[in-house]
TrEMBL record:
Signal peptide: 1-22
This protein's name: DUF6910 family protein
Record's keyword annotation contains Flavoprotein: no
Domain DUF3616, residue spans: 51-144, 160-325
Source species, domain of life: Bacteria
Keywords: Signal
InterPro entries: DUF3616 (IPR022060)
Pfam families per UniProt: DUF3616
Amino acid sequence: MASFLASRILSPLILSTLTSLACRADMEPSRWRMENLSGKWYCAGFENSLDLSGIAAANREHCLIGSDESFYVQPGVIDYGKQRIESRRPIALPIVSGDREKAEIDIEGVCYSPESQAYFVVGSHGVSKKKGDVDPERHAVHRLGVDSQSKEVKPGEIRRSSLLPWLQTTPQLAAHLNQPLQQNGLNIEGLTCVGETLYFGLRSPNKNGRAFVIELEASELFDGTPRELKVHGIDLGKARGIRELVAVKGGFVIVTGNASAEATKKFPETLAPGPDQQFDLLFWDGLNPTPEMIGTLPENPGKAEGLLVLDDADAHIDLLVLYDSLPGGMPVSVRLHR
């Protein structure tokens, strides 16, 4: 009986590991090596510090952090010497419901475009994981203009748009709108940019082992007419999804985790193969559908959700990883040797 119970307890973890190994087997041999750096970074004074889900920096001093449980973003000041990011006063984002007490934009990605002199912030565009509620606040992308000198956000230069009209005209993704994350419902979790082109990483859907990145010009999103989106398919393996991505020299670094969410009372059936506790780093050149495996992040009780590029050199990339569900994001720094 004891061995039977042990197998029942361990089976989700074994399934998750086997799925990840199968994903790795399909990828190109890696030329990368990941090194865990010894420094201990700390995010100080941020509200909803257990739910930090996105980060981007305008320079080596000023950054912006988002939480998936709030309707505002929080500027931060970076101190590389002390390895500390200290919060500043939160900035409220425009909402359409009018009820800020109940508003939840479900912020999942933040990026900064030097060409646009602006941050961009994206909501999940999905439904709530527990009850499947459809909330228009989640269907938002915000543009926050910054001062060209101080790099501080200008509160009067915040615009709101939505990917929803574009998603509705994209057959590859439209069927997954307003569906639960447990059953391949559409959910955005990553955002980065190259110049003024935005790249949105989708946690879900995963179709036959392939996850998706959406590419769209920022100017078109905020001033253009909705059309079918440009969608990149990336071979991650069965049940794996994009949890964050950042642009680096030559391509993108992607964090992957479970595509589906854990089962709930409302949605007792899930496509997730096991616990959401393994997060892999991959390199994608933006063209080849098969990315390169870099390595697996150190295991802890949190979920890897935010990436900040600390250094993008010819020989290596230094990244700061923020974890949802851990106090202050419990940042971990890693060096990726090219």
